[in-house]
Each structure stands twice: as structure tokens, then as C-alpha cells.
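Need C-alpha cells for this chain, all 313 residues.
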Amino acid sequence: MSKSSRPTSSRVAIIGSGNVGATAAYALMLRGLFTEIVLIDASKERAMAEAADIGDANAIARPTRIWAGEYADVAKADILVLTAGAATHGDETRTSIAGKSAEIVRACIDEVKAVGFDGVIVVASNPADAMAQVAQQASGLPPERVIGTGTLLDSNRFRQRIAEELGIAPATVEALLLGEHGDSEVAAFSTVRIGGVALDAFLDGRMIDRAAIARDVMRAGYTINHGKGFTSYGVATAIVRICEAVHRDERVVLPISARLTGAFGLNDLYLSLPCLIGAQGVLRVLEPDLRPDERLALLASAEVLRSTLDSIA
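Here are the C-alpha cells for all 313 residues:
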């Protein structure tokens, strides 16, 4: 979308005003991407309080209208962010709450569908891949316009952990964590590049504990959850990055959850792979050149997701 054709006003709707939804709204306000941010929650009181609190901060930031609204307000939104769902507690896995989350997601999407929403949906409800698939099926929207946050956060954690190990800045590291946003995710070391140089070449004979790095990345969410009871900043930043790519028609590649149509022989399944993202959502799903063991691990991750979907069918 060219600058001249971009609308002068824009609206993002966020369903779910809990820790993730409220943090995403705050981050979106600071980023100045949208002129309107509407919060919707089963607890109108919670949505009103969060909107008022963010509005106070907005008084010294970029002008944005922020309010607690109704589902009717979603109709004019360009992007809908869905964070409503069941929460994990302690060492509870994301997939263990799939059934309860699916009920919440379907109920929210039914309301959204009833008011005629026709934009792009970004799904952060856990488990994110399965809930993106539930949301797409319930909404009837084209799959390219329903995006799961997937492993965008996990890939950033992967980049950061590798950077720490090598003593370099995370911005210099390219790395993809693929598959399920969950315990079966795949740390694809074959995708790691530092300044365009493959990891093995950059190490130049030095050894690093790859299993420990992958384990640290996979357990990061549990560690944070154990310490503070929830995660919010990382996933909220991932939400903002996806919204930014869509709103600005960036045509940037991000590792997000999209419905696959043949990549790695997988079909009709939401799974995280690098995807080209623009104003219409997912423009293309890319198939990175993985090592045989990574490919097998990705296929195993896909089976975990299929099992999760079967359990909530």
C-alpha cells in the first residue's frame, strides 16, 4: 500500500484485556501505529480500567483514541487482535488448555463475524497455532488473513540466546525457531546466520551446547510464568510487530503461524514457518532448507498440533 493510499485514520480492536491484551494495547499506543485502539473484554470494568490507564499514558505520547468498546466497534477495525483464552498456571502446558481456549475463541469469533468484520486477525490466544486454526475456521475468512503469533517470540528468544553465547548483539543474528509454539518447537540451527555467515563457519571450530540453548529457549516462557505468574511483554511485542507489518504493508518475512498448503508436505494445518507478511496478511509461506533431523522434528511437531486439534474437534 502506498503512502498516498493509506487511510488517514485506522483502528485496531483487541479482544481480551488481560495481561497480554493490555500490554499489547499499551505498546501499540507507544508505537503510534493506529489512531484508535478499542479494548473488548468479558469484564467491561476491566476493559474500562485498562483503557483509562493507557489513556493517561497517552496524554504524553502520540494522539490516539483509546476506549473500552463493544463487539460492534470491531466492524470498522483494520486489524483484530485476539488474546482472550484460557491461561496456563505453573508448569501447565499450552496444549493442555486447548479445549477451554477453543470455546472462548469460537464465542469471540462468532460475535466478530456477526458484526461483519473483514480485516486481518492476529491470534495470540494459547495454544496459538491451534487457536489460529480455530479462529480461521470459525470466521470463514481467507486463511491468509488469520495469523497466529506462532514462534515469532520464540525465534527472538533463540536469537538472543545465541547472541549471549557468542558475545555479540542480537540484531546481528538471524535464527528461526519453527513448528509449534510449544514443547515440540524446533530450534533450527541450520538457519542461523551471523552477518550472512553460517553458524558453524562463524564458530570456526568452537563448540557450543546447542541442546542447552534449545532447552533454555523452549523453557523460557515457563521460567517467566513461574516467577511472575504470566508472560506479557515478549508476546505483546510480537503482536505489535505483526500488526506493524500488516498495517504498513511491509512485505517482511517473519516466523509466524499460518495455514500450510504443501510446505514440507503439510496441508490444512497452522504451523510456524517464515512467512512474507503484508497488508493482506500472509502473502507467501517459505520453506527453509533444513537438515534431515530438523525436518523430521518439524513433522513430529506438526503431529503434536494435529493431535491437539483432534482433541478439540
